[in-house]
Amino acid sequence: MTSTLLWALGALSSNLLGALTATTRSNHEQFAASLDSKAVVYYPGSEQFIQASARWSASQTPHYEMIVKVATEEDVQKTILYANENNRPFHTISGGHGTTSLINNVINGVGILMHEMNDITIVDDGSAALLEGGVLNGDLIAYLWSHGKLTMSTGCDCVGYIAPILGGGHGWLQGRYGLAADQLISARIVLANGTAISVCEESNPDLFWAIRGAGHNFGVVTQVKMRIYDREVDQDQWAASGFVFTHDKLEAIFALANEWLESPERPIELTHYGLFALNPDVDPLNPIVMMWIYWQGPAIPSKYTDPLYALSPVAVDESVTELPEVNSHIFANRDGASCAKGLSRALVGLSLRTYSLPALRKVLNIFTALPPEFRTTVMMLEGYAKNRVEEIPGDSSAFPDRDEKVLLSPVLTYPKNASLDATAREIGEKIRNALLEGTDGKLRAYVNYATGVESMEELYGYEPWRLEKLRRLKNEYDPFGKFNFYAPIT
Known about the structure:
Family: Belongs to the oxygen-dependent FAD-linked oxidoreductase family.
Pfam family, one: FAD_binding_4
Number of helices: 17
Largest sheet: 8 strands, antiparallel
Number of domains: 3
Radius of gyration: 22 Å
Keywords: FAD, Flavoprotein, Oxidoreductase, Signal
Number of strands: 19
Organism: Cucurbitaria berberidis CBS 394.84
CATH topology of the largest domain: Vanillyl-alcohol Oxidase, Chain A, domain 3
Helix content: 25-40%
CATH architecture of the largest domain: 3-Layer(aba) Sandwich
Strand content: 15-25%
GO molecular function: FAD binding; oxidoreductase activity
Shape: globular
């Protein structure tokens, strides 16, 4: 389908949806009256508007002149048409976690708040689920669990579920099932011209390929159909051990982690999650190093914990939970500190195949010298199992980094203060550059942790065919760059 035809269809859909006259379109109240009875329009100054526009990071401040809490796909279509007809940018809001600086380019925009669209329905004899565009990750985990099901979910309860899929979606079960994007069977998408279409392997297959890894560029996803799986009794429990060490154990800890990463028989059940943080109660001068070991099962095999105990940890936290509680270990449950709003945050991520011990030492030294305003910053070192991720062909979706084994990113956290934003980015880039030392020098930046300064190659891969295909599809489905506020294809 060519871009010309799509935009012509968009014009037709304006009539089919009962689009308002030019005079009426300029009137917010009459626009609001055209929406579903459950939809609400919020305006600046109201408490609802303040709550709806609050983001996980206070340094991302898109400027909205109105926020539409949509209730149906048709509401999304009407809102996009309204924004286009009034020459306003539009921007979708789900979990509000994206920290790219490009979000600040939304000026006098129309926010599309998805929270009312939160239905989950199990279909196809229990092998799939239909999720609306506003479903949060934690809500999906809990719903499926209560119905004897699960799927590949991400590591934070308060993020939207669908938005991370658009960039790939790492998480606890990816070793068994693949990325969150790999679970996608089909999707309903409202394009930049207001047209609503279905995408899957049989219908619009190129776009289906693109939204699994570069999906922020193409439309508002109103519904997805995802693969789900039966809970297995022997896999229900998750054992977790969190080890706290002083900084001098850094090299020994991550030498062990490299052994796990490089093992030809890497267990599908094993995930590790490292953290650097400043804790003056443990060490008043140097960062501490934490290493969480997760095992899908009732107990972690001693071959993974004994070497860590042998390094004389300062403290160990051991527990056995089920999947809905796993995110609480990193305070990423709905009420946890990792989900709290009000602070400014910046993620500066990259993917690597192994840990460079000298590079990690450089990062630890950067932490030692952090300015006072940034002393609550942490370094995330996410080592999810990759078994199934690596089995799926790299050309099956737009996600480019199936061979990378660890995801590293500082979460720079500081008080809301615009004068500190540039410093945060500078520190983040310094850390990322340190981590690139000893590699091939090519930055592979995870799209969901994009900062807004990365190149197309750094976000979407270095293969020319992949970039050419993405550019062609961007020109076809979003020729005027309406979806350029997050990791845009240029």
